[in-house]
From TrEMBL:
It comes from Magallana gigas (Pacific oyster). Residues 79-99 are annotated as: Disordered. It catalyses: [protein]-peptidylproline (omega=180) = [protein]-peptidylproline (omega=0). It comes from the Eukaryota. Gene3D superfamilies: EF-hand. It holds the Pfam family EF-hand_7. GO terms for molecular function: calcium ion binding; peptidyl-prolyl cis-trans isomerase activity. SUPFAM superfamilies: EF-hand. This is peptidylprolyl isomerase.
């Protein structure tokens, strides 16, 4: 067959047949904010992490040992105003419902 010279440009034409929206990301903030006050407390975060650990099959005692450290680090970076709660505005995770 034909030989393509080194350093040649190859051009491929691709026809897009269909485009689908992917699955909507979950609103993690809403999942954590049990009392719907638009603030996440350490208790709410702790319960969420415990549910996630259980869903992943991680033993609760192992998860609990790591949880305090995770929560301290999380609040250190997310709780910008230092009030002990993470507001909707401070939260950096997925928090918007897609339209």
């Amino acid at each position: 067959g034909p030989v393509i010279a080194p350093n040649s440009d190859l051009v491929f034409e691709v026809e897009l047949i269909q485009v689908h929206d992917g699955p909507k990301p979950p609103n993690v903030f809403k999942m954590i904010d049990i009392d719907n006050d638009d603030h996440l407390t350490k208790d709410e975060m702790s319960m969420y992490l415990a549910r996630q650990a259980h869903a992943q099959g991680i033993p609760v005692d192992l998860a609990a040992k790591q949880q305090e450290k995770v929560l301290d680090n999380l609040f250190k970076f997310e709780d910008k105003d230092g009030d002990g709660k993470i507001s909707h505005e401070e939260f950096s995770g997925p928090k918007h419902e897609e339209l």
